[in-house]
Amino acid sequence: MIRLINTLSGRVLTLTVIFLMLAEVLIFVPSVARFRVEYLQERLELSQLASLSLLATPNEMVSMDLERELLENAEVLNVVLRRDEMRELILSGDMPAPVAQTYDLRDPAAPVLIRDALLTMMGDGNRIIRVIGMPVKGGGMEIEVTLHEEPLRTAMLQYGLNILWLSLVISAITATLLFLAVRRFIVKPMKRVVRSMVLYAEDPEDSHRIIRPTSRVRELMAAEVALSDLQTQLTRSLRQKERLAALGGAVSRISHDLRNMLTTAQLLADRFETSADPTVKRSAPKLIGSLDRAIGLCERTLTFGKAEEPAPQLQMHALRQIVEEVLEGDRVQTGADAGEVELICDVPGHMRVEADAEQFFRVLANLVSNARQAIVGTGKPGRIRVSATETDRGLEIVVEDTGPGLPARAQENLFQPFKGSARRGGTGLGLAIAAELVRGHGGALELRSTSAQGTVFCIRLPRPLAKAG
């Protein structure tokens, strides 16, 4: 029983029975009040017929036995008829007790009738009541009878019991029909949707498990269509991710082998610098630079191809020291191009950052390297400036350059691997890796501005927990 109530159809069945019974209660009280009026009105009509029988006799006289029989048929004790402004006792019997209550049915109000009906049903004993009404068909101006209340109460209770049983039967039939309708048109389609979801979850790559909308109910049809679209998109995404994973594995293996080959080529190229041939001497630095960039690309590809970066080992470090190491490393790597780009460290010496020094070094190195490549590509001197400020929320580190700015295509796919590069032949892995490392520190890497006057990147790091408290 509890399992049935906890189902949708079971709850609908329970609520239907409750609401139907509530409706029956609201109908029951006026119905009983109406039955009481009709019962008393019937007593008045029978009493009027009895009085007419008396008036039709000579001298309006009948025997005691006949008078008693007329009163018993009308189920009253006395009958008083008012005609032509005269009120006279037509039929009279024994009065075992004085009149306890008088009811006037000539112009009753509905609330009064409901109140009197409830009082009658809840009363006890066999009181004597007086009822006043209008004679039918012009039989006089007023008719008044006295009668016992117990037969009225018994009739009302019997009528109420009949109404109760009828209400229960109607409620049971209605609830059963509604229960079956809900199961047929709502629960069954919902179970079909749930089964489809469970079946699809077992093998989301199987397109045959995608639900096919068939419901005729508009809302359920919309839900099935939405679920079908979602499952279709998810299946395609999973297949695409599998292909990308396979491709990534192949690229990682190729990059690993290619890096070994390029390292060997780099060792051989180093010997060219000792050659006495002027042409070889001029070409050697460019060859070595190309090999360095190719090896760097392979290393970044291998790094990005890992399942995930290791969790950062957060410690407090002097931010200026890390920035200076990044700038000095950039000067050493660029060598001959170092004079074309001015590197400025504008970080206060006292400022400290809670970070993984090695990972944060890679972030800044990527940003500085991209900025330098953009400036060198213009063939004009430029400047890269790294600054930092403390805010209420934490630390902001800004890397700005005087390069040509990012093209629209690079801005649209910024921080996306193999899409967000601003250079021809670039991969965009540097920014993607940098953004991932910053997220690992609980911060965010964002492009603040870019134009023909230069580009500004901002690293936002949260305030250390020790200071936040």
TrEMBL record:
Residues 253-465 form the Histidine kinase domain. SUPFAM superfamilies: ATPase domain of HSP90 chaperone/DNA topoisomerase II/histidine kinase, Homodimeric domain of signal transducing histidine kinase. Pfam families: HATPase_c (PF02518). GO terms for molecular function: ATP binding; phosphorelay sensor kinase activity. It catalyses: ATP + protein L-histidine = ADP + protein N-phospho-L-histidine. It is an enzyme of class 2 (transferase). PANTHER family: PEROXIDE STRESS-ACTIVATED HISTIDINE KINASE MAK3, SENSOR HISTIDINE KINASE. It comes from the Bacteria. Keywords: ATP-binding, Kinase, Membrane, Nucleotide-binding, Phosphoprotein, Transferase, Transmembrane, Transmembrane helix, Two-component regulatory system. This is histidine kinase. Gene3D superfamilies: 1.10.287.130, Histidine kinase-like ATPase, C-terminal domain (3.30.565.10). Its EC number is 2.7.13.3. The chain crosses the membrane at residues 12-33, 163-182.
